Amino acid sequence: MIRDTAAQDRPLQTRSSRARWLVFIALGAIALTLLAVAAPRLQRLFSADVSISAARLMVADVERGPFVRDIAAEGKVVAAVSPTLYAANAGAATLKVHAGDTVKKGQVLVVIESPDLAAKLAQELSNADAMQADHLRAQVDARQQRAALQSAWDNARIDKTTAENDLARQQKAFDAGAVPGMQVEHARDTLAKAGIAFSQAAAGLGLKEDSLKFDIQAKQLAHARQLLLVKDLQRQVAELAIRSPVDGQVGQLFIAEHANVAKDAQLLSVIDLSALEVQMQVAESFARDLGIGMAGEISGNGQSWKALVSAVSPEVVNNEVAARLRFAGDTPGQLRQNQRLSVRVLLDKRDNVLTVRRGSFVDESGGAYAYVVRDGIAQKTPIRVGARSIDKVEILDGLAVGDRIVISGAEAFKGAAQAAISR
Fold first, then answer.
1. pTM given for the model
2. Percent of the chain beyond pLDDT 70?
3. In this structure, which topology does domain 115-236 adopt according to CATH?
4. Can you say how many angstroms the Cα of residue 337 is from the centroid of all Cα atoms in its chain?
5. Which of 6, 8, 104, 195 has the most Cβ atoms closer than 10 angstroms to its Cβ?
6. In whole angstroms, how large is the CA radius of gyration of the chain?
7. Higher-scoring residue by pLDDT: 394, 207
8. Which CATH number among 3.10.180.10, 3.40.50.1100, 2.30.29.30, 2.40.50.100 corresponds to the domain 84-113+240-270?
9. Is the separation of the CB atoms in 205 and 153 below 8 Å?
10. What are phi and psi of 29, to 5 degrees?
């Protein structure tokens, strides 16, 4: 008998249509729930103007905490006092030192020979001697003239006295009837003439005295003026020996040995190593916040020193401003000219400040707005920024603690109001 598959065949049981509908309803409910949850996100995604990959962006959180504004840069040691010496007059210069020599204050560094100036000094000295002789001669002449006038005055006074005595005798004789009245009148006339002569002699003596005084004074003033000219020339001759104004070291030589130099030509520089400062270059955006007297720190060679800002240049060169710091205490002895050191200047320090990491968004928008990231959407939000440091920016308005904003790469949004951020 041939066996068949009858024993293996079983009738299939069909599921009821009700269970099938329950499954469909459950799946639909799940789909609607997912759609309801994702609908706002999908709506924002479809409403976004642009879509940018997150790899192209840098995002930072808004925080509240301490805010320190400082400037850190590399500086170089420079001499606070480094005078450059110039030729006081034209001539042949002879160097008495070499570059790098240690010099003392008042030491002769360069001697300039000026034959013209030496000849002029000798000529003016001779003129001064001649004027002194004129002054002395005027004094002698004045004494002689004064003696002659005094003699004339004395004679006139004696003549007047004689006339007075003669008039008295004639008057007595006339009263006694010994002489006629004519002789009395003659004696009276003689007295009048003597009085006039005496008055003129006295007036002439006074006037001549004043005139002689003026003449002597004029000679004296001329001599004094000439002495001032000689003194000025002597000063110029003394300045031909160029002396060091400070204790220090000879820096750069600008002339060769026995070179002929013009007036006011550069000769050499002297470096005062006892007063060193550190010069740093500061970006123009930070320079406006720098002020003389601000605290700073200088570090190098494994050490650090407190410092103060001593000078800020008023000139901007290549978008930078030069600033100098001086040591708050004694100048370290191991420093050398042009040595490189690290410099840090503290501009501001505050607590409990709303800040965010600094990025290109500050420069791109000028701090007027930022893109706040929520649920994968970057929303353009107006903000107001305050002080800025090297790594942080103070937020005054528009953001809160915990907000996440795009600090770099926002230029890809091209100013869109919303932008989608894709993974």
1. 0.49
2. 89
3. Helix Hairpins (1.10.287)
4. 21
5. 195
6. 54
7. 394
8. 2.40.50.100
9. yes
10. -65, -40
